[in-house]
Specification:
- Helix content is 55%, strand content 7%.
- The protein has helices at 18-31, 43-46, 53-69, 87-96, 101-105, 108-114, 123-137, 151-167, 215-224, 236-241, 243-256, 260-267, 272-297, 301-330; strands at 5-10, 36-41, 77-81, 143-145, 178-180.
- The radius of gyration is 21 Å and the shape is globular.
- The structure holds tryptophanyl-5'AMP (TYM).
- Tryptophanyl-5'AMP binds at residues 7-11, 19-20, 23-24, 42, 45, 132, 135-136, 144, 146-147, 149-150, 186-188, 197-198.
Length: 335
C-alpha cells in the first residue's frame, strides 16, 4: 500500500501553547512512523501580520526546537523552514490565480483577525489560505494534521486543488487532502473562558499553558482556571454543559490518554481541588520536559541550522518535481 504524505505547519509567532501541542504537534510525532511526513515552520505566513525581525528569527528557531522536543525525528520526517523553500511562494502565486475572491471572502479566520479593520490589513493576510494550500499541494500531501480552526482552510485547499485539476483537465493531478483532526482536543479552549480558543494572542497569560511554563506557573494557572460553582459533574452530558469544565476534562484526557469515563469514575461528585492538583501533575509531567528540551536546544543554533538546512534541501528536491509538472501543465515555456 502507498504511504500517505503528511504535511503540516506552525507559525513562528510567539510561545507555543498546549492547544498547538494537543491539537496538532502531538499528532505530527504520532504520524511520522507510518507516513512520509513534512513539518514546516511557516514564516511566510507569520509576516502577514508585522513581526519584529529579531523576534521572528528567534521564534523560528524556537518552533524548530519545539518540533524536535515534541518527538519529531529528523531522520523520519522532513523538518524545514518555509522561506528556505522557494516553491511555496511560487506555487502560492499560481494558486492565487485559481482561487476565487468569493472563496477568500468566506474565510472566518480573516474576519476574526481583521475585525472591523479589514481595509487596513495586509493583502497577504487575505490571501493567506492560498499560501497554505500551496504548502500542502506542493508535496501532493494527502493528510494534514491540524486543530479544528484550520478546517475551513483545508476545505478551501480541496476546492483549489479540484478547480486546478478541472481547469487544466489534469484529473487527479493534485490529490484532495484530508484534514486529520482529533475529536475533543481539536479545539483547546482558554482556561479563563471556555467559549474562546486557547491562543497566543490572548492578552492574559493565565488563559493558556505555554510549552515553556515551569512547574509553579502550571500549578498557579490550573488553580486559577475557571470551573463551576458546583462539584464535579457526574455524567458526560453534565460536563458538556459547562464549557470550562469540559475543556479541563478534554485537556486531562489529551495529556494522560485516560478516557473521560475513567476520570469521571475517579472525580465525579468531588470538589475541584484533587482534580486540579492531579491535572497539574499530569501537565507538568508532559509539558516541562518539552520546555526544558527547547531551552537546551536553543543553546545550540548550529544544530538547529543544520536541521533546517538538511530539511530544506530535501523539501526543495521534492517540491521541484511537483512545481515542474505544474509549470508544464499551465503552459509556461520549459527551459
Ligand atoms: P497556527 O500556527 O495558528 O497553529 C498551529 C497548529 O496548532 C493548532 N491550534 C490549536 N489546536 C487546538 N486548540 C487550540 N486552541 C489551537 N490553537 C492552535 C492549529 O490548528 C494548527 O494546526 N495556518 C496554520 C499554519 C499553516 C499550516 C499550513 C497548517 C500554514 N500552512 C499547512 C497545516 C498545513 C496556522 O496558522 O496554525
Amino acid at each position: 500500500m502507498n504511504k500517505k504524505t503528511v504535511l503540516s505547519g506552525v507559525q513562528p509567532t510567539g510561545d507555543l501553547h498546549l492547544g498547538n501541542y494537543l491539537g496538532a504537534i502531538k499528532n505530527f510525532a504520532k504520524m511520522q512512523n507510518e507516513n512520509d511526513c513534512l513539518f514546516c515552520v511557516v514564516d511566510l505566513h507569520a509576516i502577514t501580520i508585522f513581526q519584529d525581525p529579531l523576534e521572528l528569527r528567534n521564534n523560528t528557531y524556537e518552533t524548530t526546537a519545539a518540533y524536535l522536543a515534541c518527538g519529531i525525528d529528523p531522520k523520519k520526517s522532513i523538518i524545514f523552514n518555509q522561506s528556505q523553500v522557494p516553491g511555496h511562494a511560487e506555487l502560492a502565486w499560481i494558486l492565487n490565480c485559481i482561487c476565487r475572491v468569493g472563496w477568500l471572502n468566506r474565510m472566518t479566520q480573516f474576519k476574526e483577525k481583521s475585525g472591523k479593520n479589514s481595509e487596513n490589513m495586509s493583502s497577504g493576510l487575505f490571501t493567506y489560505p492560498t499560501l497554505m494550500a500551496a504548502d500542502i499541494l506542493l508535496y501532493k500531501a494527502t493528510h494534514v494534521p491540524v486543530g479544528s480552526d484550520q478546517k475551513q482552510h483545508l476545505e478551501l485547499t480541496r476546492d483549489i486543488a479540484q478547480k486546478f485539476n478541472n481547469d487544466y483537465k489534469s484529473e487527479n493531478f493534485f490529490p484532495l487532502p484530508e484534514p486529520y483532526i482529533e475529536k475533543d482536543i481539536s479545539r483547546v479552549m482558554s482556561l479563563r473562558d471556555g467559549n474562546s480558543k486557547m491562543s497566543k494572542s490572548d492578552p492574559s497569560d493565565y488563559s493558556r499553558i505555554n510549552l515553556k511554563d515551569d512547574q509553579d506557573t502550571i500549578v498557579k494557572k490550573i488553580k486559577k482556571s475557571k470551573t463551576a460553582d458546583t462539584t464535579i459533574p457526574i455524567s458526560d452530558d453534565q460536563i458538556n454543559k459547562i464549557p470550562e469544565v469540559s475543556n479541563l476534562f478534554n485537556i486531562f484526557v489529551g495529556v494522560t490518554g485516560l478516557t473521560k469515563s475513567e476520570l469521571l469514575s475517579k472525580y465525579a461528585g468531588q470538589n475541584f481541588s484533587n482534580f486540579k492538583s492531579d491535572l497539574s501533575d499530569a501537565l507538568i509531567e508532559k509539558v516541562c520536559p518539552i520546555g526544558n528540551e527547547v531551552t537546551k536546544l536553543m543553546q545550540d543554533k548550529k544544530y538547529l541550522n543544520q536541521i533546517m538546512y538538511e530539511g530544506a534541501m530535501k523539501a526543495r528536491e521534492k517540491s521541484a518535481i511537483v512545481l515542474k509538472d505544474v509549470y508544464d501543465i499551465i503552459g509556461f515555456v520549459k527551459q
